[in-house]
TrEMBL record:
One of its GO terms (biological process) is base-excision repair, AP site formation. NCBIfam families: nth (TIGR01083). It holds the Pfam family EndIII_4Fe-2S. This is Endonuclease III. It comes from Bradyrhizobium zhanjiangense. PROSITE patterns: ENDONUCLEASE_III_1. GO terms for molecular function: 4 iron, 4 sulfur cluster binding; class I DNA-(apurinic or apyrimidinic site) endonuclease activity; DNA binding; DNA N-glycosylase activity; metal ion binding. The gene is nth.
Length: 260
């Protein structure tokens, strides 16, 4: 009997050589961030030297000599129409208000006539003025309040005028000054600019400028002071290109950028 030896397969152990590693590419060093240029240091501006009482007296003496009896540019017939005109002038020009009120005041120059006119018809007269719908509502409401609480007469106190719809501190100051001769200072955008730019009465708010001006302006000039300052700001001390060359007080003004 032939014996055949059993075949036992032998598995060869296969060993794989690891793939050669790629040479590490050196990382580029990040460039240091460029330093941001520092803004130029602001030049410190010294506070302007306050005006002396003699300088203030001189300034308003010049205003008085040039325009002894300044007039407000809002057209009106009586204290009531003045009140209405000032309320309508908020965020509007005096010329634009005058154009609308000339016809209006021919038919409604008292609180009762204004109420009889009514809000809808009033809007037709003042529709060329900005915010005319709100202003029409306020004028009708203030007319009713003047009749019911003040006997049909414009109140002669700041608190009374400020209680009326659409009227604020500036409105009260204008009416008290122009209608009743009170020594008040109405600060609009022109007076605010002049008070700050000249250094006469610097302030961050209209009230600060108002109180500052009342403090330094002599009583003999207060009757017309706010008109002089308004006109000066409107026609000479302009917002963008002040006309320093024709300014009556350019030698007294503290503005560091004046051109003379």
């Amino acid at each position: 009997m032939l014996i055949v030896p059993q075949y036992i397969p032998i598995m060869a152990k296969i060993t794989r050589k690891p793939a050669p590693r790629k040479a590490a590419v050196p990382k580029k060093k990040a460039k240091p961030a460029a330093a941001k240029p520092k803004p130029p240091a602001k030049k410190s501006r010294k506070a302007a030297k306050p005006w002396t009482p003699a300088e203030i007296h001189e300034a308003f003496s010049r205003f008085r000599k040039a325009n002894p009896e300044p007039k407000g540019e809002l057209e009106h017939i009586n204290p009531f129409t003045l009140l209405v005109a000032v309320v309508l002038s908020a965020q509007a020009t005096d010329a634009g208000v005058n154009k609308a009120t000339r016809a209006l005041f021919e038919v409604a120059d008292t609180p009762q006539k204004m109420l009889d006119l009514g809000e809808e018809r009033l809007r037709e007269y003042i529709k060329s003025i900005g915010l005319y719908r709100t202003k029409a509502k306020n004028v009708i409401a203030l007319s009713a309040k003047v009749l019911s609480e003040f006997g049909g007469e414009v109140p002669r106190t700041r608190a009374g005028i400020e209680s009326l719809p659409g009227a604020g501190r500036k409105t009260a100051n204008v009416v008290l000054n122009m209608a009743f001769g009170e020594h008040t200072m109405a600060v609009d955008t022109h007076v605010f600019r002049v008070g700050n730019r000249t250094g006469l009465a610097p302030g961050k708010t209209p009230l600060e400028v108002e109180l500052g001006l009342e403090k330094v302006i002599p009583a003999e000039f207060m009757r017309h002071a706010h008109h002089w300052l308004i006109l000066h700001g409107r026609y000479t001390c302009l917002a963008r290109k002040p006309r320093c060359e024709v300014c009556l007080i350019n030698d007294l003004c503290r503005w560091p950028e004046k051109t003379v």
